[in-house]
Amino acid sequence: MTELRAKGDVTKGRLLEATENLVAEKGFDAVSVRDITGLAKANVAAVNYHFGSREGLLAAVLEHRMKPLAEERITNLASLGEDHGVRELLQAWVSPLVSLLVVSGLPELAYCRVMGRCMEMLASPAFPEAAKASRAVDEKLLESLEKCIPLMSRQEIEWRLHFVTGALIHALVHGASIQDQYRLTVAVEQWVDAATMSFQGTDILYERNEAVKKGNANRRKVRATPQMRQVAEVVSSVMEADEVNGETADVAEDAPPVVGDNQNAGPVEGKNQKHKKSKGDDGHGELFLF
User: Which structural domain, as residue segments, surrounds residue 153?
Assistant: First the structure.
């Protein structure tokens, strides 16, 4: 029985190791059970026997790499005193990546790629337990950043932390593309510098937010007087002017005609018709059409 258990532990370890190597190369989504068992030289049924399913094996890889990382991050953040800045917080949060490399048992580049892809998968709803532990660490970091940057809103901090975390993941997985001899310590140092700068400029940010608030207040004041009311006032004034002009024209039409011979009758009637035409074509119709 002891020998069988030992063989089972060896097979389980080979499956985990093979999965990590394939994840580092391809990513979680591209790894199949046959790829894993082929590299581990194990039976296909061994995955279900030891881990229940492919998803169970991937979850085991996440827990194996992310649980120690979360624990060290919490310890580092809790050990910081009250007098610390953004750089110290980010350094405490990211430094466990370097310390865990020594005990990882993986080559440096493979380790970085595995850790980067594991951090990326924490956003997936397929692994709620691993994601829950990661969110607890992120919440602690957010609370500490809020105290360091009182002028920055929580939502703004969340966005910036989201961006810099994505940059860290990209540096872990693809950092070798810009560094011939990839070194995790160098990548982490570069990330800390860039991430710290992304949280600077809070005075400018505060002024920008205040300007936005004032602009919104001014827009609300303008909306207090509806535009349709202004339009109605203009139309009403035009209609009143039209009625006054119409009464004047009616008085002119009701005036007695000029007495003259029959030769002048035609021209007088023509003038009246011309006057009526100009009255109808006073231009206000174009205003309403517009």
Answer: 62-202
Do 48 and 168 lie in a common domain? no
Please, what is the Cα angle at 25 between 22 and 31, to 5 degrees? 40
Distance CA 15, CA 21 (A): 10
Q: Which has the closest alpha carbon to 85: 147, 155, 156, 163?
A: 147
- Contact call for residues 161 and 138 (beta carbons, < 8 A): yes
For the chain, how many structural domains are there in total? 3
Please tell me whether residues 15 and 75 are part of one structural domain: no
Whether residues 198 and 233 fall in one domain: no
- Cα 55 to Cα 59: distance, rounded to the nearest angstrom: 6
- pLDDT tens-digit profile, the chain (290 residues): 344 344 558 899 999 999 999 999 888 889 999 999 999 999 999 999 999 999 999 999 999 999 999 999 999 999 997 788 999 999 999 999 999 999 998 899 999 999 999 999 887 777 888 888 888 999 999 999 999 998 899 999 999 999 999 999 999 999 888 877 889 999 999 999 999 999 986 555 555 556 666 666 555 554 544 555 666 676 777 677 666 565 555 545 555 554 444 444 444 444 444 444 444 444 444 444 43
Contact 192, 90 (CB under 8 A): yes
Burial of 199 (0-12, 13-18, 19+ CB in 10 A): buried
CB 19 within 8 A of CB 62: no
